[in-house]
Specification:
With 110 residues, the protein is mostly helical. Helices cover 75% and strands 0% of the residues. The protein has a domain of 53 residues. Helix 2 runs antiparallel to helix 3. The longest helix has 26 residues. Pfam families: DUF305 (PF03713). This is DUF305 domain-containing protein. It comes from Belnapia arida.
Length: 110
């Protein structure tokens, strides 16, 4: 089945967002060792989790499969919680949660 022009546009937008998310994640994961393994781990894992959040958010903006959209919402919520737990574990301040969380992203999607 051939894709329509609109479907191709949506796919290109999704892939572009995904490419940006992956590039940002990979760059942010390249942490220069600080001498504190715990802090280095949290820095790398925070970047990794943020990449998952960004990719899930792209799916929420562009995807149509309701099961995957629900899973993407769960990914956003759980990854944000894990970032917070790691930051608390090393005594770092919690990062603010973006105003456009999974609920508002999902409702504004498509």
């Amino acid at each position: 089945m051939a894709e329509t022009a609109a479907e191709q546009t949506v796919e290109r937008s999704f892939m572009a967002e995904n490419d940006v998310a992956m590039a940002q994640m990979m760059q942010a994961m390249a942490v220069r060792p600080s001498g504190d393994i715990d802090r280095d781990f949290v820095a790398m894992m925070t970047a990794h989790h943020q990449g998952a959040i960004d990719m899930a958010t792209a799916l929420l903006r562009h995807g149509g499969n309701e099961r995957l959209r629900r899973l993407a919402q769960e990914i956003v919520i759980t990854q944000q919680a894990e970032i917070s737990a790691m930051r608390l574990a090393i005594g770092a301040p919690l990062a603010p949660v973006p105003a456009s969380g999974p609920a508002s992203t999902a409702s504004s999607a498509r």
